[in-house]
Amino acid sequence: MTDKKFTGAQYGGLAFSGAVVVYIALAFIFSLASVYTGFDKNGGDAYIYLNYIVSPVAITVALFAVTKLTRRPLRQALPVKMPPRAAAKWCAVAVLLAFGMLFSLSWLNIAFEKLLRWLGYKNAPSYFPDLSGGGVALALLVMALLPALFEETLFRGVLLNGIKEETGHLNAVLLCGTCFALYHASALQTVYQFACGCAFALLALRSRSVLPAAAAHFFNNATIIILQACGLDTSGSVFDWAPLWAAVLVTVLSALSLIGAFAVMLAEKTPFAKPVKGGVLDFVVTASAGAIVLAIVWTAGFFG
């Protein structure tokens, strides 16, 4: 039974704040224990993988707590069932969307990173474990599949489906993108993560399922891992590691893929829901704790 004391927007905001607070707390404890034991320097790949597992654990704990608090069954916020034809259609759109964003929008990320570096941002870029041999399979599981499942459950499942009817669909897409970008606590990837968060939210809305967004998320992460395993520098654009003709071809095809994916999503005839009074405010108030914590983490990158 749903607790009427909590609106859908409040439910989504509480889920976000809860996930952030638990995530930051677990990350702090893990970091402290690792420094104390020397695991951060001697743990090797195990340290890297455990770092990636902190987020799925935090999301699980937070959603369990918020579900109990609000008495909202988690399954209500996780539409996954799709007819076979619809599943094939929207998973194809998911692949086009992820491919398009990954290769045609990378310049946005690069430009924003240069701006932050110029302003004095000092946080180190993300790092990868050993990807040789069977290392790729483990990396795909921990760094691609788990984030796709757990983060999509939180953002395009609980958060989006909790708030969309009260904040309105377009506001929900923008809020979902903002929270997704903040959650990654990486200022260098803020623009790209925001774009991905909004695109995945629109995909989930139009497909009426969280599965296509999870597929797009996995494809994005898996492609980066595979390219990195092949010795290609994924921190730059395709022009940094591919021959000019190949880079141009990939860029053109990815741009066409992105346009095609958005064309299919926007062609859906289902109208966007309009916001109700107080819906956005309800979400902002309950999500503010998480947003403030992450904004502090984001800003801290300028000082070390």
Q: Find the count of extended strands (DSSP E, 2+ residues).
A: 0
User: How far apart are the termini?
Assistant: 47 Å
Largest sheet: none
C-alpha-based Rg, rounded? 19 Å
Mean pLDDT: 89
Give the gist of this structure.
The chain is mainly α. The protein has helices spanning 8-37, 39-42, 45-70, 84-104, 106-119, 135-167, 169-183, 190-207, 211-229, 244-267, 279-300.
Describe what this molecule looks like in 3D:
The chain is mostly helical and 304 residues long. It has one domain. Helix content is 74%, strand content 0%. The protein has helices spanning 8-37, 39-42, 45-70, 84-104, 106-119, 135-167, 169-183, 190-207, 211-229, 244-267, 279-300. The termini are far apart. The mean pLDDT is 89.
Can you give keywords for this protein?
304 residues; mainly alpha; globular
Helix/strand layout:
Elements (H helix, E strand, L loop, with lengths): L7 H30 L1 H4 L2 H26 L13 H21 L1 H14 L15 H33 L1 H15 L6 H18 L3 H19 L14 H24 L11 H22 L4
